[in-house]
Amino acid sequence: MTTLKIMAVAIAALFISTSAYAKPRIAESYIFCDQRGCRQSDEVHQAPKVFVEITRKANKHARRVVSDVVASGDYLVDKARRFMGTNPTGWNAVWCGKFMAMIAPEAAAKIKNPNRARDWATLPHVSPQVGAIAVFTRGGKGGHVGVVTGFEGRNPIIVSGNNNRKVREGVYPVSRLIAYVSGS
């Protein structure tokens, strides 16, 4: 699987008024996402006058780019993988839905009971893709939910909570799949 590497540059003008001769400066805010997570660094540089004038438009565009990165499924994959090998919910049983609610709170807000895995199937359905949320059956009325990180044949590989009592990555049979849904 290839690693997503996106760098969005958000530019904002800062006017430093330490003296009457202070020159305009810009702060470049870099947001970089890869398999280790998303990081941000800020640097301040001297800004040319023309550059300061177009900063407003550039900043607007950069916010759109950053929004696209956050809305993409790779962001959910990254966020879920940060918890590998742990139980961040503190629950002892049936906590895969609770974990998904932690990493996808906007999607969870649209669900009546996000702690119940099968309730995630009420979100808008999407095609099978990395970053989609996969909802599965699990005997009787139970279910399981996680974020798709890849595929082994037609079977999705997902990162999910409560996989042997920890957040883990594993292959699940497509025969148990209820739906792929949007996490945004």
Mean of residue pLDDT values: 74
**Sheet of most strands:** 5 strands, antiparallel
- Overall shape: it is globular
Distance, first to last CA: 22 Å
Which structural class is indicated by helix and strand composition?
A: alpha+beta
Classify the oligomer: single chain
Q: What order do the helices and strands follow?
A: EEEHHHHEEEEE
Radius of gyration computed on alpha carbons: 21 Å
Sequence stretches where pLDDT stays below 50 over 5 or more residues: 1-30, 43-53, 63-71
Estimate the helix proportion, in percent: 10-25%
Instruction: Give a count of the beta strands, DSSP E runs of length 2 or more.
Output: 8
Which percent band covers the strand fraction? 25-35%
Strand order of the largest sheet: 7-6-5-4-8
Our count of helices gives 4
Please outline what is shown here.
The protein has 184 residues and is α+β, with helices and mostly antiparallel strands.
Describe it.
The two termini are 22 Å apart. This protein is α+β, with helices and mostly antiparallel strands. The strands form two sheets. The chain has a five-stranded antiparallel sheet. It has helices at residues 49-71, 73-81, 96-103, 105-108, and strands spanning 6-14, 25-34, 37-46, 133-137, 143-152, 155-163, 166-171, 177-181.
Write the layout of secondary structure elements.
Layout lengths: L5 E9 L10 E10 L2 E10 L2 H23 L1 H9 L14 H8 L1 H4 L24 E5 L5 E10 L2 E9 L2 E6 L5 E5 L3
Antiparallel strand pairs: 1-2, 2-3, 4-5, 4-8, 5-6, 6-7
